Amino acid sequence: MHDILKAAGAGRGQSILIEGTAGMGRTMLLRRAMDQAGEHGLHLLSARARASEQDVEYSVAQQLMAGARTLLAGTAPDADGPGAWEAHLSCPAPYAAHPAPGSAAVHPLARLLSSGTPLMLAVDDLQWADTASLRCLGYLMARLENTPVAVVATVALGETPADPVLAEVLSSFRHRTLLRGLSAEDTARIAAEAFAAPDLAPDSAEAAPDPRFVEACRTATGGSPYLLEALFRQMRLHGLRPDAEAADRIGDLAPVEVADTLLPRYDRAYPGAEAVLQAVAVLEGSATTAVIARLLGLDALGAADVVDALVRAGALTGQDGVVRFARPVLRTAVLARVPPSRRDALHARAAQLLHESGAPAERVAAQLLRVRSTLGLHWTCTVLDTAAGEVMQRGDTEQARAYLHRGLEECEGACRGKLLRALGRIELAADPAAAVEHLRRALALEPDAAGRADIRLCTAHALQLLGRPEEAERVLLEGVAEARGAEEDAASVLRAERCLLRELNAVNTVVDAVVEADCAGAAEPLPPAATATPGERHTRLSLAALRSSRRGEERDRAVHQARQALQEEHVSLDWRIATRTVPLQVLARADELDLALSECRALLDRARAEGSRTLLTIAHSMRAEVRYRSGDVAGCLEDARAALEPAGASPSGHWSRTGQAMAAVVAALLETGELREANRALSDFGLDADVPEGAGFAALLFHRGRLRVACGHPQAGLADLLESGRRLAAAGQLNPSVLSWRSEAALVHAALGERDAALALVDEELDRARRWGGRRATGRALRAAGLLAKGLGGEEALREAVEVLEESAARLDLARALTDLGILMRKSSRLGEAREHLRRAQSLAEQCGAAVLAQTARQELLAAGARPRRPTEVGIDALTPTERRVALMAVAKFTNREIAAKMFVTQRTVELHLSRVYRKLAVTGRSGLAEYFARPESGSAGSDRPECAAEPAAWSGARAG
Predict the structure, then answer these.
(1) Tens digit of each residue's pLDDT (9 = 90 or more) over 139-176
(2) N or C end of the chain, less CB within 10 A?
(3) Tally of CA atoms within 13 A in the half-sphere of 66 that contains its CB
C-alpha cells in the first residue's frame, strides 16, 4: 500500500481494490491507507457506500465531493448559483462511446484530474455504490494515467450484485489484494493486546496467550479480525483469560452482536439468507440443500441459490454435499439470536425430516436432545435407544446417558422399561447408585423372565460396587427363585453369579444344603458339550479359581482356571463389571505377576475404549496391588491415586474398591517414608478411625497397622493387623498370599515380649503358605521366622527366604530378606558376605523406589565396613567415572575393541564395565543404553527421614512389610 500511494503522489495514477469476506478487516486496512495519504502529499476524499442508499443517485459521489469543495473553490461558474454542483452531476458511463465533454458536461470530480491536485479517493463497500457514482468513478479511473491520484476501494466477496457497471469498474482496478485469515502469530498478538493487564506490556512473555487458546480462536473465527474482537469482548464479559481453560469454552461462547451485524447484511444481499443460516445452524452436520429447503418450506432451487451465495460470501462451506458454517463462532451466534420457541420448532421439524429420510439414529437423536417439549411421537424411543447403543460402541457414555434420559421424557409402558434397562447398564460405567435406581424401575416394567434375570444381574453388580453385598445376594436369590421352572438357563446363570459374589465377598455364613449344592455345582467346570454363554463360562471358571485361591489349595489348578476365564470373550460381560478382575486376583495371589500386569493393561485399555470410569477405577485398583506385589512402588502409588480420583474425598458411600486403592496408597507411602502423607490420605477419606465392615477392607487395616507401627504406636498397629486377620478368617479367607497378617502381627507381638503368640502365628502362616505353594507368601513367612528364631535356625530361615524369593517376581520382598540376612551376617562378623547381601539389597530397593529400605541397607552396608563411592547402587549416579566413559562411548557406537584401544584395557574389561552399567541402569544391551541416555538424566535417590517415624525397633529387621 505504501508503494502505491507513493507512486500516486509522484504523478503515476494508481488504483487498488481490497477484497475479502465480511469481517476480514477490509475497512481496517482501508483506514490505515487513509492515514498514510498525507505522508505522500495526497488530499483525502472518502466515502462509504451503504445498501440502504444504493438507489440514491450520486450518494457516494456527493460524500466524496464534501471534501472536494474547498479544492474546487473558484473553478466552478458562479452564474449557476446554488444548484451549480447538481447541474454538473451528469457523468458518462466509462464504457460508453461519447464525445469529449466540455467543462459544463463534466462532473466536478473529473475536473479535479485536470487541476493536478494530488488526491486519494477512498471508497468502502464499493459493492453497494449507486450506479451514477460508479459511472463517475469508472470515468475517473479510465483517465488516471499520469495523474497524482490514487483510488483505493474495498469490496465484500460474495455480496456483489449482478450489475454490469459495477463489474466494469471492478475490472478497471490495476491492483487487487485478497485478505485471508490471520496467522497464529497475528492472532496471538491481538489476543495479548486485548487481554493485557494495565501494568503489563502486550509483547511481554507474561501476556502471551496459551498456544491452545490461539489455535481454538483461529478455528472458531477463521482468523477474522472482526469475529476475534467480538469473541474477545464476550470472553471479557464472562471473565475469561486467554489460557488453556478458555480454549475449551470458546465453542460455547455466542457473541450475538456478530449475528446482529452480519445477518441483516446477508439478508439484504440475498433475501432469505437469515432463515437459511438459522436452518444450517440447527441442522449442524445434517444440513444438505434439500433438507434445508424442506425445513424452511422453500423451493429447492431457490434455497440452493441462497446457499451458493452464502458460500461465496464466506459464511458457509460445502463439502460432500453437507453445508456447514465456515466459522463456528458464527453458528453459535446465529443460534443465540433465534428465539427459543422458533429454535424448538426448528429442531423438532428437523428431527422429523431426518427420521423420514432415513438418516442415522445419532443425527435424529441429536435434534431430539435440543427439543425442550415432548413430541409424543411413537418412533422417538426407538431412535434414542438405538443412538445410545451406537455412541456406547465408541465409549461415549455421557452422550448415551443423555439420549436415554431424553427418551424417558417421551416414552411410557414397556418401551420405558427398555430405556431404563439400557440406562441402568450404562450407569454402571460411571454411577452405580443411579444404576440401581434405574434398574429397579426397569424390573417393575419388565414382563419377560429372561429380561428380568438380566436386570437382576446388572442390579447385583451395581450393589456389589457400592459395597452392599448382602443386597446383591438377595437380588440374585430372588431371581433364582423367580426363574426356576420358567427360565432354567437364566436361573443357572443367576445361581452361578450369586455363588461367585459370595466367594468374592468371602461370605462364610452357615447356609442350607440347597445353597451349598448350588455353589458346589456352579464351581464345577462345564462339560464339553454344554452350551453356555462366554459370560457363564467366565463366571464358573472365575468361581472355581477363586474358591481354590481363597482356601489356599491347589494353586496350579487355580492358575489354570483363571487363565481359561481370561480367554473368554468379554463383549457380553459389560454388566459383569464387579467380577472382571477376579481372575487377576487369583493370578496375583499365585505370583503370576507378569501375566496379571499384562491383563491389567488390557483391562485399562478396554475401560478407556468403553468410556467406563467404574471399570477404569477397578482396573487401576487391581494394577496398584499387582505393582506393589512386584515391587513397583511408584507405579503402585500412581495407579492407586488414579483409582481414588473419581471417588473424591468424601468418607461416605465407599465403593468396594476404595479399600483396595487406599491400602495401596498407604503401602506405597510407607516404602517412600512419607508417613505424614499416608496419615493425611487416611484422614481425607475418613478412614483414620472406623473402617467399613467386610473383608474388602482387610487390606486397608493391614497396611494401616503397619503405618501405626512405623509411627511408633505398636499396640494400635497390632490391633489393626489382628482385626484384618479376624475379618479374613471370619470370611473363610485362609490363604496367606492374600495378606501376610500373621507374620506382620508376629513381629509386633515379639517386640512387645509376647514370643509364644508370635511363634504360633508364624508357624501357622508358614504351613499355609507351603500348602498353597506361593513363593512370595512362603518367602515372607520364612523371613518372619528367621527374624524370630535364634542362632542357626534364624540364619537358615533367612537363607531359605532369599532362595524362595529369588525365584519369584517379588523384588521388594527379596530386598527385605537380603537386608535382614546381611544384618545377621554383620552381627556374626561375616562382613564380606554381609556387604554382598546388603549391596544387592540396596540396589533392589532403589529399583523398587523403596527409599526407607534402601537407606537402611546403605547404613548397614557402611556399618559392615563398606566404603561405597556412590550414594546409590542404581541410576546414572551409581556409575563410576570409568563406567560412565565406557557407557558414553558405547552410545556413540564404538565397538568393544575400539573402546578397549582408547582406554588401554582389554576387551574383557570393557565387557565387565558394560555389564555393570546395564545392571545399574536397568537396561538391556546397547539399544537400551542409547534409549536411556536419550532421556533426561535422573538424579540420585533421596532418603529423608520420615517425619513421624519412630526409631527402628530391634524386632523389625529391615522394616516389616
Answers:
(1) 888 888 888 999 999 998 877 777 889 999 999 999 99
(2) N
(3) 9
